C-alpha cells in the first residue's frame, strides 16, 4: 500500500487550503494519507530556526511507515520541499517519489537525491520564490536550515536524472501561474487529480 505524507509551506495558516486538498484525490486512488503539520510561522526567521527539527520529524515518519511495509511518497509545497531536502541531506530520508510543488529551494539543488523520482511542479508566474531567493541568508547555519531559492519559478536546473520538471505555465492545456495556483479554483479541479495520478504512475513526462 502507498502512504502519502503531505508537508505544507511556511506562513500557511490553514494547510487544508493548499496541500491538504490532495488528501481526497490520493485517497480516491487507494492511498493512506498523513499530514505533517508544523504550524503557522508568520516570520521568516522561524523557518531558519525550526526547519531542521521538522525535517527530522519527517524523516522519522517516513521510516515509521517504511518499517510497516508501506511504499512512501512525500508531497511538499514551497518550504515543505526545503524541509524534505534537509531530511534527505541530513537524515538520509529516501522515498519512492517526492512531489515538489512550487519549491522554495535553490533551482540547482536536487530536492531529494536519494529518492527514486522527484517531480517538480513549477510555473513562470511564481514570484514568491524569487523573493525567497533574496531572503536567503549567507551564513553557513542559516543556509543549511533555509536553502530558499527560485525553483518554483524556474524548475530544477541541475543534471541529476531522477528529477523531472512539469511547467504548469506551458506543459498543460490548463495553465496555473502563481505560488499556490495549483490549489486555487478553477485550476485546482484539474491539478489536484493530475498531481496525485502523476505521483502514483511515476510519470516522467507530460502526455
Could you characterize what this model shows?
This protein has 207 residues and is of the alpha/beta class. It has one domain (2-201): 3-Layer(aba) Sandwich (Rossmann fold), CATH 3.40.50. 36% of the residues lie in helices and 16% in strands. The protein has a 6-stranded parallel sheet with strand order 2-1-3-4-5-6, sandwiched between helices. Helix 2 (44-67) packs across helix 3. It is globular and about 40 Å long. Residues 137-141 have low confidence and may be disordered.
Task: State the gist of this model.
The protein is an alpha/beta fold. The chain has seven helices and six strands; from the N terminus they run βαβαβαββαααβα. It has one domain (2-201): Rossmann fold (3-Layer(aba) Sandwich).
Topology:
Elements: E1 2-7, H1 23-28, E2 32-36, H2 44-67, E3 71-77, H3 79-91, E4 97-101, E5 117-122, H4 128-135, H5 140-145, H6 151-154, E6 163-167, H7 188-201
Parallel strand pairs: 1-2, 1-3, 3-4, 4-5, 5-6
Helix pairs in contact: 2-3
CATH superfamily: Alpha/Beta hydrolase fold, catalytic domain
The CATH architecture can be given as: 3-Layer(aba) Sandwich
How many domains make up the 3D coordinates? 1
Alpha plus pi helix count:
7
What is the rounded Rg?
15 Å
* Percent in helix: 25-40%
Order the strands across the largest sheet as they lie in space. 2-1-3-4-5-6
CATH topology title: Rossmann fold
User: Hey, roughly how much beta strand do the residues contain?
Assistant: 15-25%
Q: Which outline best applies?
A: globular
Amino acid at each position: 500500500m502507498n502512504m502519502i505524507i503531505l508537508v505544507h509551506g511556511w506562513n500557511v495558516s490553514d494547510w487544508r487550503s493548499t496541500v491538504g486538498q490532495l488528501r481526497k484525490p490520493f485517497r480516491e486512488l487507494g492511498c493512506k494519507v498523513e499530514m505533517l503539520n508544523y504550524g503557522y510561522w508568520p516570520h521568516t526567521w522561524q523557518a531558519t530556526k525550526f526547519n531542521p527539527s521538522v525535517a527530522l520529524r519527517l524523516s522519522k515518519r517516513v521510516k515509521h511507515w517504511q518499517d510497516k511495509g508501506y511504499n512512501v511518497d512525500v508531497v511538499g509545497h514551497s518550504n515543505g520541499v526545503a524541509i524534505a531536502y534537509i531530511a534527505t541531506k541530513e537524515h538520509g530520508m529516501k522515498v519512492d517519489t517526492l512531489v515538489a510543488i512550487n519549491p522554495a529551494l535553490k533551482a540547482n539543488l536536487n530536492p531529494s537525491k536519494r529518492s527514486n523520482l522527484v517531480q517538480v511542479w513549477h510555473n513562470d508566474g511564481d514570484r514568491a520564490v524569487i523573493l525567497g531567493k533574496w531572503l536567503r541568508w549567507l551564513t553557513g547555519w542559516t543556509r543549511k536550515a533555509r536553502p530558499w531559492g527560485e525553483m518554483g519559478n524556474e524548475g530544477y536546473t541541475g543534471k541529476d536524472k531522477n528529477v523531472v520538471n512539469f511547467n504548469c505555465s506551458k506543459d498543460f492545456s490548463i495553465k496555473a501561474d502563481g505560488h499556490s495556483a495549483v490549489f486555487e479554483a478553477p485550476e485546482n479541479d484539474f491539478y489536484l487529480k493530475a498531481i496525485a495520478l502523476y505521483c502514483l504512475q511515476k510519470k516522467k513526462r507530460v502526455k
